[in-house]
Amino acid sequence: MDLRHLRYFACVADEMHFGRAAKRLGISQPPLSQQIRGLEDELGVQLFDRTSRRVRLTEAGQLFLPEALATIAQAERAVDTARRVRAGEVGRLSVSFTTSAPFVPEIAGALYTFRHRNRDVELTLAELGRDEQITGVDQGHIDIGIVRGFEPPALPAGMESRCVLTEDMILTMRSDHRLAAMKTPIKLSALAGEPFVIYDAAIGAGFNEHFIAMCVEAGFNLRISQEASSLATLLGLVSAGFGLTVIARSLTRLHPEELVYRLIDDPRFVSRLWLIHRHAPSPTARAFLDCIAG
């Protein structure tokens, strides 16, 4: 017995006429009659009383019909579920991100679009440092990671990255700082001796190393006064006068009253946002990547 037999039976039971049922099914009447007879032989019962004037269900046919319809409906639901899984419309998706990623319009917009397109996907979000994200994706705990850095992150075999955004890094300071009066881009060498608040090693991985190297290239060692493990702490410490910091341009929409933002006069002073995932992402991961791609 297969679903085709059940569908044929259900159609005849609905029409109570072999000719009309055959037309509706797009087949001729003799093969339909043969299929129904084969089903009856397989079940060992007669499903229809047939006369030259009418067709009606037997008692066995009446009891068999709701079960057949339920089986057909269940099979259709199973097929639909498989299709939706393949399209990334159901299932699970785990996304991790650096602390600044939710403030990037492209990322926030993709999350919004994905949630509204794929309401049956269980979406899990986690704010993690770069190395934790790479490990999570590599081990299969995370589907997509979003990391920040000057260069593509070094990844294990089986993973890949793609750049989704390049933006200026902005010097951030209190409004009463001596450099706040400068309206033109500030040279990196002018920051020699200034105390800086930076992200700790876990959060700042991928950026701190390059920033420190650029300062050395400009002729000075970066003076680190404090480290922060969150964006709120970073900006809070700058507001409290512990030093300057640098943040991505997308974060300048956050505007504490005490802070001002200034460009740095160096075209290399940009940050890139990278998506990391396995070479063969899951259907839900592909659906999220499509949202970011627009």
Ordered list of secondary-structure elements with their pairings:
Layout: H1 3-15, H2 18-25, H3 29-43, E1 48-50, E2 55-57, H4 59-86, E3 90-97, H5 105-117, E4 120-127, H6 130-139, E5 144-149, E6 159-174, E7 195-199, H7 201-204, H8 208-217, E8 223-228, H9 231-239, E9 245-248, E10 259-263, E11 270-278, H10 283-293
Parallel strand pairs: 3-4, 3-5, 7-8
Antiparallel strand pairs: 1-2, 5-11, 6-9, 6-10, 6-11
Task: Sum this structure up briefly.
The protein is α/β, with parallel strands linked by helices and 294 residues long. 41% of the residues lie in helices and 25% in strands.
Name the descriptors.
alpha/beta; D-Maltodextrin-Binding Protein, domain 2; 3 domains; seven-stranded mixed beta sheet; two-stranded antiparallel sheet; 10 helices; 25% strand
